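Standup notes
- DV: blocked on the single-chain target, sequence here:
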Amino acid sequence: MWLQQTIRLPAARRGFHLITNEVTHAVPELSSVRIGWMQVFIQHTSASLTINENADPDVRVDFETAMNHAVPESLPYVHTLEGPDDMPAHVKASMMGSSVMIPVSDGRLQLGTWQGIYLCEHRDRASGRSVVVTVHGESSS
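- DV (later): unblocked, structure below
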C-alpha cells in the first residue's frame, strides 16, 4: 500500500514547532498499516524537519539558541536579496535536513516515548509551509 498526502502548515514564528499531530491526522489510513514506514518531506529551502524530544518546551528554545550560534546572521553572506535571515535559514535547513523517516507498526508511528516531529522554521516572517507525507507498508486487512 502506498499513501501520499500534501499538507499545508500555517505560518509559524521562527523556532521549533511540534507537528506530529498534524502529520498523523493528515493520513488517517495510517491506522490500517500493519508494518511500514512514513516519510515526511518539507518542500522548502529555508525550513527543515527533525525528530527530537517532545516533552520539555525548553528543548525548542535551546534548539533555536544553538542553531543561531552555529549559523549567525552576522556572517558576510552574498545572498541577501530576501533579507538577513534568508541565507542563514538556507544553511540551517541544509544542516537539519528536509525529511524524516519513521517506522510504522500496527497503525502507529514508532517514535520513542519522548520523540516528536518538529518543523524547524528558520525565517522571521515565513509563510505557511507545505509538507508531503508518504506512507508505504503492508495493510493489516
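- Follow-up: Strands lie at 2-9, 15-18, 33-42, 47-53, 99-105, 108-109, 115-121, 129-139.
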